[in-house]
Amino acid sequence: MSNYLGIDIGSISTKGVIIDEDRTIVARSYLWTEGNPAQAAKRVMAELADQLLPGTAVVGAGTTGSARRLVGAMIGASVVKNEITAHAVGTTWLHPDVRTILEIGGQDSKIICVDGGIAVDYAMNTLCAAGTGSFLSSQAHRLGVEVEEFGPIALTSKKPANIAARCTVFAESDLVHKIQVGYAREDIIAGLCHAVASNYLNNVGKGKKIQAPVVFQGGVSKNVGVVDAFERLLDMPVAVDPDGHLMGAFGAALLAADAGPVSVDGAPGAPVATGPFASGQLDFEAAEDFTFTTREVECQKCANHCEIICVYRDRDLIDAWGNRCERGEVKVP
Amino acid sequence: MADTKKAAPVQGTARLQSTVHAQGMMQAQNTAHAQGVAQTQGMTQARAEDATVNVPISDDARTQVVFQRDEPRRAIPFPRLKKKVKRDRHKRTKVSIFRYAYYDPAFKFFVEQVLDCDYLQLPKATKRTMELGIQNSSDYVCTPFKHMMGDWIEALEMGADILVQVGGPCRLGYYGEMQEQILRDMGYDFTMLNFSHGIEQGYLGWGREVLKMVNPDIAIPHGVKQLLACGHMVTLLDRARDFYMANGGFECHHGDFHRAWEGLLDAMRATTTKAQIDQAFADAMAEMRAIPIDKPNDPVRIGIIGELYTAIDENSNLGLDEKLMDMGVEVARTLNFSNRYTHYNEENMRRTIAEYVEYDMGPTSTMTLAAAKKYAQLGFDGLVHAKCAGCTPEIDCIPVLRRISEDFHVPVLYLTYDTETSDTGLMTRLEAFYDMLAMKKEAK
Q: What ipTM does this complex have?
């Protein structure tokens, strides 16, 4: 039994899956990061451990998401990959015929064009987080609605309000204006969902040829209002996988499976067993027990004063990054 | 008819005679003053003694007479064949040029050999440079302005007398004016040699500007010779860089290429003649060619295109080409200083992309698009388009790049740089781009 763990630590939520040798998901977890990626990763791993049958061995791990490096160092991951690759790998495994992947997460949104199971082009939002999950949740807060209820409410609307989609700041002031003028709540919510979809297509999807079949994923894909808006704007069916929000973690797990099981005796080509993997398989309790601290050091070797992040497991330095030249390099034992 | 024909030379002679006459008078006056004799008396004497009065003269003699002067010729600046030593009653001026990629050896050569001044070598840019630049620039100005602003303030703090700003075909042309104003408002005293002034009059206007603002004692033939050598150095630096970018990603021992490259820059900084420049280049190329590399037959190849400052300057693009090389990519970048300035033929380049572009759209647009199409035709795996936030000409290029990308099935990664210093987001995008290209290659 060789299972692999994949964790996707995003800015808003942390996702984790465990896949078996057939590459099907056997355990899944999804919770809020709450500004503490290390703690979130631990909680995800605890949740996953509860779902596993006793005696299943996890022999490798992959991390992705914005805190991939930190958590990767913590759990001794064999693969640390960016979220774009992880999403592409995960989705093309589940949907081999997919041509376009739309993804809207908490802070970023991306589009991946696929041809023959291989990503051929991608784009990612650049300077601002307009029309992402965090925008929707802050507007939900303003309207006094849980963001999870957005979708069903939006579907009840007959005539969505027209909300400026260009920029979050404009959208917000437009929204306040529409509320004060007296638009119905469901029309405003449907308008917001529409604004997210059209903003995405105008910014991230600009110039990309969107071809069917289309798969929509990321946290926002759970919002049926946005899915409906996409289907109307694109005039084609948009598929949402029930595990669509876990696709990054799934991709990371697949990549870890490709890398093979960790090796204790340092076999050539195999990932090295460290940290909770020291015994050759993941020791969930050890992962719980380790305490991780990060320390920010200002390098004094030159006038640039790089901020170097040092990660300690218990009291051992396990990784460091942030230096811009070899003078600030921290030697990890 | 015959009368008028005859009359003309006679008139000419008459005018000539009067000139000679007046000169004679002046000579007489001077003598008169010196001796303290009555003026009129001296005048009559001089006229009587002057043998040239009323004597017809030959054409040869006429030219001699007209250019005959009683004072020694006043010095005119051209041609002066020997390099003139600057008078030591003036202190040597310190000249500073903004930081720009790896061109500081050429800037140093230009200041020391062409302008004949001291060069103020700026240390590597730090976060403080950036902060100074941001503080003292308008928020929405293009990013290179902020970088240069930081450079100027540091240069002035280090005691620069003269700042050199280049002219340019986009907003760059207005930078000098604006920066001079801002720095003066901050209370600095300096001279700005702004090549936006005078460049519209061609090389002569440019030269006049240099003589007027920096150093009137420049030996012009020497300066011209060294200016050509300076252009030659820029070309060689770019050629070495192209070699480095094509092979640096495949070195067997990490850091070899970088060391050779730094050695080349150091050697170039020490040169004073064209022969030395050629020697330094030959040595460095031999060193780079000797570095063992492990290059696959079909590596991932990426072409960098974009705006003149951001796509080249490692300080503002956060080491884009080195990051790509570290992933094991063969990097190519047609865009560089010599391709844009020393041998640039916009019209010819535009003809290669005639199906996309009819007019020149600005500073580097034609080069960006021509290079993009060339890379696509050469079968490059991907293109990276780097520009600073608010670069209008390069934004104009994006729709055309999309068409090229569609026609040739080559993905383009669009990067916009502002004054950020964290490269996490950039690394995510570059890694994903590389993974995508590598997987695509593997699947083929």
A: 0.85
**Long-range CB pairs of B278-285, under 8 A, 24+ apart, other chains included:** B278/B236, B281/B236, B281/B239, B281/B240, B284/B240, B284/B260, B285/B240, B285/B243
Q: Indicate if A96-240 has the same CATH topology as A3-85+248-289.
A: yes
B140 touches A at CB < 8 Å? no
Give CA–CA dist B247/B242, Å, rounded. 9
What digits encode the pLDDT tens for the residues B329-362?
A: 999 999 999 998 888 888 999 999 999 999 988 7
**B424 interaction partners in chain A (CB closer than 8 Å):** 66
Considering only the beta carbons, identify the residue of A66, A88, A120 that sits closest to B411. A120
Question: Which numeric CATH code is attached to A3-85+248-289?
Answer: 3.30.420.40
Does A135 touch chain B if contact means CB atoms closer than 8 Å? no
Q: Which one is the CATH code of B94-218: 1.10.10, 3.40.50, 2.40.10, 3.20.20? A: 3.40.50
Q: Which one of B411, B416, B428 has the shortest CB-CB distance to A82?
A: B428
If DSSP codes are grouped into helix, strand and coil, which group holds residue B345? coil
Task: Give which of B359, B337, B355 is closest to B346, Cα–Cα.
Answer: B359
Residue of chain A whose Cα is closest to the Cα of B430 = A82
The answer to whether B124 contacts A304, with C-beta atoms less than 8 Å apart, is yes
Higher pLDDT, A198 or A170: A198
Q: What is the mean pLDDT of residues B190-194?
A: 90
**Cβ B128–A120 below 8 Å, yes or no?**
no
A26 touches chain B (CB under 8 A): no
In chain A, where are the structural domains located?
3-85+248-289, 96-240, 294-328
Nearest to B127 among A88, A127, A304 (CB): A304
CA distance B272 to chain A (A): 30
Tell me how far the alpha carbon of residue B328 is from its chain's centroid. Answer: 33
Asked if B432 lies within 8 A of A84 by C-beta distance, the reply is: yes
Q: Is-contact B86 B116, C-beta < 8 A?
A: yes
Q: Which fold has domain B299-444?
A: Rossmann fold (3.40.50)
Task: Tell me the residue type at B1.
Answer: M
- DSSP H/E element including B404: helix B392-408
Instruction: Give the mean model confidence (pLDDT) for residues B282-302.
Output: 95
- Contact state of B402 with A302 under an 8 Å Cβ cutoff: no
| Euclidean distance between CA atoms B240 and B256, whole angstroms | 14
Same fold, B94-218 and B299-444: yes
The topology under which CATH files domain A96-240 is Nucleotidyltransferase; domain 5 (3.30.420)
Taking only residues 165 to 204 of chain A, the set having a beta carbon closer than 8 angstroms to any beta carbon of chain B reads: none
For chain B, the domains span 2-66, 94-218, 299-444
Alpha-carbon gap, residue B429 to B385, rounded angstroms: 12
Check B439 against A119: CB less than 8 A apart: yes
Do B429 and A124 make contact, defined as CB atoms within 8 angstroms?
Answer: yes
Distance between CA atoms of residues B308 and B333, nearest Å:
11
**Helix boundaries (H) for B186-319:** 202-213, 220-247, 256-269, 274-290
pLDDT of residue B225 exceeding 60, the answer is yes
Least Cα separation, residue B402 to chain A (angstroms): 6
